[in-house]
Amino acid sequence: MDNPKYKFRSITKKDYEFIYQVKKSAYIKYVEMNWGRWEEEEQRKLFAQFISTNKDETFIITHKEKDIGFYNGRTLSNDRYEVGNICIIPEFQRKGIGTAILKDVLSENNDKEINIQYFKQNPVGKLYERLGFRSSGESTFHYQMIRTKQKQ
Question: Cys bridge to 61: 15, 69, 98, 105, which one at CB 3.0-4.6 A?
Fold first, then answer.
């Protein structure tokens, strides 16, 4: 992806703590709303599982050579793609970077059905609707959305 707002770079083990802290800053309020509090030890265990499973599909988001967040997503099958996380540090939020990333991911995967989910308290669903996603279900804590294939 060649976008003036951001670049992706591959992660290394040195990035794991940065990714954890960005993920924590993005999700702590939702975890606290749903489970009452952020249990650091438990969250570290969950993060270790996350990074072990997703390290090959996780990228650091950079802006002018500064690390500002991370993205992960993966191809589920020939015709399905899943957006995992787009997490950006607070000082770079609300600048259109996350939206630019999502638009680029959608464009690159036009030939696939795209799945995404988010915490029910997160207002991001309106953005996803504007980008063509429609509700596909929910769990106790999340809404799921899907965008159908855009070309055959």
Answer: 69
